[in-house]
Amino acid sequence: MSVPEALLPTACATPPVRFERGQREVFCGLTGIVWLHRKIQDAFFLVVGSRTCAHLLQSAAGVMIFAEPRFGTAILEERDLAGLADANEELDRIVGRLLERRPDIRMLFLVGSCPSEVIKLDLGRAAQRLDRAHAPGVRVLSYSGSGIETTFTEGEDACLAALVPAMPQASAAQETQLLVVGALAEIVEDQFRRIFAELGLRNVAFLPPRRAGELPPVGPNTKVLLAQPFLSATVAVLERRGAHRIPALFPLGAEGTTGWIRAVANAFGIAAARVTAVTEAGERRAQRALEGLREELAGKRIFMFPDSQLEVPLARFLSRELDMQPIEIGTPYLNRDLLSAELALLPAGVPIVEGQDVEAQLDRCRAARPDLTLCGLGLANPLEAEGLATKWSIELCFTPIHGYDQAADLAGLFSRPLARRARLRV
Length: 426
What we know:
The protein is α/β, with parallel strands linked by helices.
């Protein structure tokens, strides 16, 4: 299935959206560290938080106690929370000891949490102080992963937005650069690099980079291509640096990947025939891989709770490439500008809900009795106990799902819960 050319690079159709405000059921932004620390190989993420924050990261990451992960927690004790200790002095001491023990660290993120924000600990100022103290060997930055106002994928958004001020300024004479923004598995990044090279694009960079010292320059000659739909803050900061975003579908499934690549080709004036020659083999390969999974999923009804901001492109992929029927698409926040092409391809009349009133959504889900429910971990077990098959939305961030060769893996994430439930019935 191909994308209508009229929808590239922009789209204008905007289905109606209902807003809900109430109790939410989401992970906090600290969870993003679990995939980000794998991506930037010489960075360290130091959460300034409570023991609860430390337990969350250990549980989410599944890291053994003897491992040397690239993240940790500076635990705020009762004396810190009561204002009886100088938290900044303690933080300076912990950072100094960490960098002495881990000389491989070249970038250190101080990550705010609910506890550090409640006591008004200024991690931005602390990062500036520590950056001066440990320059030039280590760059120290800060961002908030607090769950007070944000959902778990917004942790990546905040992290990448914090990286942008550290990116060099591109000169006016520099060749136009394609900057792909959003954390991707290394194997996926390598696949996309090969595709862009076949299109004839020589100046391609990715954010975040694999090494702290590889931050690409940014400026008016930078064209930004988003790999993830939840990067609103990062886009805004990049545009303030002069970069221009390429409107596009997101590279989920055969259709989304081809649409994503065609949007780049349009922005760089690459002939349509060249794009077809580069993409047709990958698109056919993905479509063949999806055929058997389509037989398993066609006609199945899915209810999507708001969790990752991936829900809209996922609904487009599931409905158009696997013939599933979304009965409600919930998303924590809907950026209509970033998702305009995706919104135009959704099934007509499907309800889209921005925000969350979890009790009301649970009532609608129970009444609908969908074949599959996409939701967070906190809702999955109770719904499974009620006889509903579920898929954890956080797996979509831990698993390589972008591009042609991952299309079947993405579909498999939705077919396996149904297959498991069918086996249990027997």
